[in-house]
Amino acid sequence: MTQKFNNDLNQLLKTLIGDLEQEVPRRWNTLEIKLEQKEMYEVLFGQLARQITLAIQFASNQNCWTFDLAPIILRCMADNYINFSWITKEPLVRSKKFILYGLGQEKLALEHRKKQILEDGGKPDDDLMIKYSEAWLNSQRYTFLTEVNVGSWSGISTRQMAEESDCMDFYDFVYTPFSNVVHNMWGHISRYNLVQSYNPLHKYLRQPTLGDFAIDIYNIRLAVKYADKLLRKFDETFEIICEDKSTYLKFLEAFEIFENKHLTN
C-alpha cells in the first residue's frame, strides 16, 4: 500500500468514526425518557450503543478486516440486531426479560467462581472480584431473588426470533453463514485453516496452516451497514425523524470516491 492510500484510508475512517460517535448522544438527547419504562430505554439504548461501539472498534482495527476475524464481529452485530428487533415488538416486557436473564447468568458465573475458589482452598468472601460482582448484582436485584435460566433468554431460538421480527433474510444471509465461523465449523476451517496437498499419493491430504490473511476493505462497509440497520430500526421504534443524511450514506459516498481513486484496478 502506498502512503497516499494509507493517508486517504485513515482520513476516511477518521470521518466515519467521528460520525458514528454522534449517533447515540443525538438520539439520547432527542427522546424524552419515561422513567416508568426505564428498563426499555436501558436495554434498547444499550443495544444501540453496543452496535455502534462494535462498528467503531472494527473501523479502528484494520487487522480485524480478514475473512478469519471479520465474520466473528459481524455475526455479533447480526445477533444484536435480531435481539433488538425482537424486543421492539413488546419493548417493555421483553426488555425486562432480557435484563432478568442477564442477571441470572451473572449470578450463575458468580456461583461457579465461588465453588472454584473453595475447591482451591481459598475463601470466596475475601475475593475482590466476587465482592464487586455481588455489589453490581445487588444494585439491580438481590442475588437471592435472582433466578437462573439455563435456556435461551427469549425462550425461543434465534431463528424463531428472526421470523417473528420479519428479518429472516438477515438471518439466512448474515447470521447463519457467520455463525459457521464463530462455531469453527468445517466449512470455514477447511477453507482458511487447512491447505490441500495436490499430490495424489498423499490422497490430497489437507494440512494445517497458520495463514497470513489479507484484510478486505469491503468488510468495513458491512460493519457500517449493520450499524445503520439497527439505527434505522431504533428510529422506527421511537418515531425519530432525522433530517440529516445518515452516517452510512455519507460513508458510502466517501467510500466510492476512495474506491475509484485506489481500488478500480
Care to give the gist of this entry?
This protein is an all-alpha fold and 265 residues long. It has helices at 3-28, 38-60, 70-87, 91-119, 128-138, 158-164, 168-182, 186-192, 218-238, 247-262; strands at residues 194-196, 206-208. The chain folds into two domains: 1-86 and 217-265; 90-164, no CATH class.
Describe the 3D structure.
With 265 residues, this protein is mainly α. It has two domains: 1-86 and 217-265; 90-164, no CATH class. Helices cover 65% and strands 2% of the residues. It contains ten helices and two strands. It has helices at residues 3-28, 38-60, 70-87, 91-119, 128-138, 158-164, 168-182, 186-192, 218-238, 247-262; strands spanning 194-196, 206-208. Helix 1 (3-28) runs antiparallel to helix 10 (247-262). It is globular and about 60 Å long. The model has no long low-confidence stretch (mean pLDDT 94).
Largest sheet: 2 strands, antiparallel
Regions with little confidence, pLDDT below 50 for 5+ residues: none
Binned strand content:
under 5%
Number of extended strands: 2
Q: What average pLDDT do the residues reach? A: 94
Give the % helix: 55-70%
Number of helices: 10
For the record, give the distance between the C-alpha atoms at the N and C termini, rounded to a whole number. Answer: 13 Å
Number of domains: 2
The topology string of helices and strands comes to: HHHHHHHHEEHH
Structural shape:
globular
Major β-sheet strand ordering? 1-2
What's the gyration radius in Å? 22 Å
Secondary structural class: mainly alpha
